[in-house]
Design a protein that fits this description.
Elements (H helix, E strand, L loop, with lengths): L1 H14 L6 E7 L4 H14 L5 E7 L4 H13 L4 E4 L4 H13 L4 E4 L10 E5 L1 H13 L6 E7 L5 H14 L5 E8 L4 H14 L5 E4 L2 H13 L7 E6 L7 H7 L4 E4 L4 H12 L7 E4 L3 E3 L3 H51 L1
Parallel strand pairs: 1-2, 1-3, 3-4, 4-5, 5-11, 6-7, 6-8, 8-9, 9-10
Antiparallel strand pairs: 10-12
């Protein structure tokens, strides 16, 4: 009889479709609107994999904190690590340590100074910088006194966007470089530092910011100096939230922004290919595009439709989770009842 009971329990467990559980650790370098969107995409994509758990940590722009975060995830023996390095040079050794310990590594957005990673997923930041330069070039030979508001100096995305920009405009004689600042990707830092810059250079008429948040900060400083109407601002990210990049273009505060894709769904799909030992691309380049007054409204409408679809999918997923939980409870009750009957019959 005990053998029969064991067989029933074994059959019950197999009906539940138990599969290997995976834990993915995510070390984000920062915490802002762009990261929130990326995290939400990863969380939503993970719903397609019931055997997957995500652990998300944010270093909040602190190298030492990110090193501790990654070490914590290593100690927890996660199955795979997703890392967006705050500064490539500082974070490389701990990423190499994880890789050498046998943990697959997906580097996203920013790069490390090593080839010890399993996959890289992100946009081509040199190409984005070149696209910004081509936009400036398309304006003709109008004399421009250009100032650059850069992201964190040690991040590869900031370095590459500057490189790409000057690949194009470095040869244009009608552009005068008025200088640059490191605003660490923050709106507040850009606003504070540009306030001082405008005291020294009130004749700046073009600002290239390496993300939209810094472009908005620079615009606010210019408005305080009553200079904003004589300056064109461009940025990167093209988020569609109220008062963010695309909305700023529609309001006329920014001339253009460039899409910096988050790609959270692609990141999780690649992670599962790696964990399931399926073929995957080691280097995935996400596409960018220019957003200006000609297409900003279309992008806002498209994004609104995507958000509606995502919300609906989340609702359906929650309903499905509830249904499966109820079914599992029912199955457990049925199995328990069968065991009780068998035990009673054996008396």
């Amino acid at each position: 009889m005990s053998v029969l009971i064991a067989l029933i329990i074994l059959l019950f467990n197999s009906c539940l479709g138990e599969s290997e559980k995976y834990v993915i650790g995510i070390s984000q370098c920062s915490q802002d609107e762009w990261r929130e969107k990326q995290n939400a995409e990863m969380e939503q994509e993970s719903r397609f994999y019931p055997n997957l758990e995500l652990k998300v940590l944010s270093a909040k722009d602190d190298n030492e904190r990110q090193i501790r975060d990654i070490q914590q995830l290593i100690d927890q023996k996660v199955n795979l690590l997703i890392v967006s390095p705050n500064e490539g040079k500082a974070i490389t050794p701990i990423v190499e340590k994880a890789y050498d310990a046998g943990i697959p590594i997906i580097v996203i957005d920013r790069k490390v100074m090593s080839d010890k990673y399993t996959a890289f997923i992100g946009a081509d930041n040199i190409q984005i910088g070149e696209a910004m330069g081509e936009y400036i070039q398309s304006l003709g030979n109008e004399p421009l006194r250009l100032f650059e508001v850069c992201g964190l100096e040690g991040s590869t995305s900031a370095q590459e966007r500057t490189q790409g920009l000057y690949n194009v405009i470095g040869r244009l004689n009608h552009i005068e470089r008025m200088g640059s600042i490191d605003a660490s990707w923050r709106m507040e830092d850009a606003e504070y530092k540009m306030d001082s810059v405008f005291n020294l250079h009130p004749d700046i008429n073009f600002i290239v910011a390496q993300n939209d948040r810094m472009a908005i900060g620079a615009f606010r400083a210019a408005r305080r100096h009553r200079l904003e109407k004589g300056i064109r601002f461009i940025g990167v990210d093209a988020l569609t939230n109220k008062d963010f990049g695309v909305d700023q273009v529609m309001q006329g505060n920014m001339a253009a922004t460039f899409i910096y894709p988050t790609g959270g769904d692609v990141v999780i799909q690649t992670a599962m290919h790696i964990l399931n030992r399926e073929p995957f691309e080691r280097d995935v380049t996400l596409s960018s595009a220019q957003v200006d007054v000609t297409n900003a409204r279309i992008m806002m409408l498209q994004d609104a439709l995507v958000k509606q679809s995502s919300e609906r999918m989340n609702q359906l997923s929650e309903q499905l989770d509830s249904f499966l939980q109820q079914r599992n409870v029912q199955n457990i009750l049925v199995a328990s009842f069968i065991v009780i009957i068998l035990n009673f019959a054996a008396l």
